[in-house]
Amino acid sequence: GQFKMAAAGPENIGQEDKNSTNGDFFQNGLKSSPSIQDVDLHDEENEKEPLASSPRRSPTNGEDNNKNKSRRGSRKPFHVPDIGNGRTAELDSNSTLATYSRYRYYSRLAPPHDDRMRIPDHIVPASLFYPPIFIDTSKKQGSLITIFSIWNTMMGTSLLSMPWALGQAGFILGLVIMVVMAGITLYTCYRVIKSVDGVDQEGEVLEFSDVCRHYLGRWGEGCSVFFSLSALLGAMIVYWVLMTNFLYNVVGFAYENVHLAGNETSSTEVLCPNSTIPPTWNLSGIFHESTPANDIFHDPTPDSDQFHQIWERVKTVPFFLIILVFPLLNFKSPTFFTKFNALGTVSVVYLLVFVSVKAGQWGINMDFSHTGKGMYVAEASAYFPILTGILALAFFIHNGVVAICRNQKHPENNGRDLTIAYICVMMTYLVVGAIFYASFPKDKNCIEDNLLNNFSNTDTMAFVARAFLLFQMWTVFPLLIYIFRLQFMHTLFGSTYPSFFHVFFLNLVLVAVCVLFARFLPHIGTIIRFSGAFCGLAYIFTLPCLVHLVRLKQAGRLTWPNTAIHVFIMLLGLANFAGQVFFLNKT
Question: Where does the pLDDT of residue 36 fall: very low under 50, low under 70, confident under 90, or very high at 90 and above?
Answer without folding.
Answer: very low
